[in-house]
Write a structure and sequence with these properties.
Blueprint lengths: L1 E5 L9 E6 L10 H13 E6 L1 H6 L2 H9 L12 H9 L4 E8 L5 E10 L2 E9 L1 H4 L4 H16 L4 E6 L8 H9 L2 E10 L2 H10 L9 H13 L4
Helix pairs in contact: 1-6
């Protein structure tokens, strides 16, 4: 299956989009509750760039594994520690960020970002669930990354990616509400291998009844491409 994206930032609503932030914002421009939680995070935590080896040495895998426990819809098995750590150490193209508690220097959240030209994708955001309403790590981490990329480096935009068909983490509505990300509307077209196209055509009428998540996600993409949702 090949997904083609065109007419990016179309200017009018469509049923597909990339969620971006292209406006540097001071903390005073954000919602009141968001400001309070950002300040709470800065008070309790240190936020900084990491080397990939430091993410491994700080037990990033535990953060990664704990984060998966709160997802409501996960279609892949969680990676084993040795596989995850090897993938991090071999990753020399991403930028890594971490959130550490000031009290005990414990890593409680991290981000893995991919820079492409004058934009950056927030590809991975993970936090220990029990810390999210105690130290609010996402609030401080996202504010600091937005400041770094949009204000300091003057990138064109930061992105959380395209419309999700799994919606397992609810991160995109969170970013819209708290950090004023916006939808850069675009159009999407799908091209299938002949055998897969036939399967999709046969299964599409029964898409809401299929229990296999990977198949259901493909059918969700097909529903979007047809303009049905």
């Amino acid at each position: 299956m090949i997904r083609n994206i065109y007419d990016w930032d179309y200017g009018r609503p469509t049923n597909f989009w990339e969620l971006i932030n292209d406006t540097p914002r001071k903390i005073e421009e954000l919602p009141s509750k968001t400001r309070n939680q950002i300040r709470r995070c800065f008070r309790d935590c240190e936020i900084r760039r990491l080397e990939n080896s430091e993410l491994v040495e700080s037990d990033g895998y535990t953060v990664f594994a704990e984060a998966f426990k709160r997802y409501k819809d996960v279609s892949v098995n969680i990676a084993r520690r040795e596989d995850w750590e090897r993938s991090i150490l071999e990753n020399d193209t991403s930028e890594f960020w971490g959130v550490f508690t000031r009290e005990d220097c414990r890593l409680i959240a991290f981000a893995i970002n991919t820079v492409k030209g004058k934009s950056v994708g927030y590809n991975t955001l993970k936090a220990i669930p029990s810390m999210m309403n105690k130290h609010y790590p996402y609030f401080g981490l996202l504010f600091e990354m937005n400041r770094h990329y949009l204000e300091e480096l003057r990138f064109n935009y930061v992105s959380d990616g395209f419309r999700s068909v799994t919606e397992h983490s609810n991160i995109q509505p969170f970013l819209e509400k708290n950090f004023l990300f916006r939808k850069a509307y675009c159009r999407m077209n799908l091209q299938y291998a002949p055998w897969l196209g036939l399967i999709v055509k046969l299964l599409y009428p029964f898409r809401n009844l299929i229990p296999i998540l990977k198949i259901r996600h493909i059918l969700n993409f097909e529903e979007i491409a047809r303009g049905k949702c």
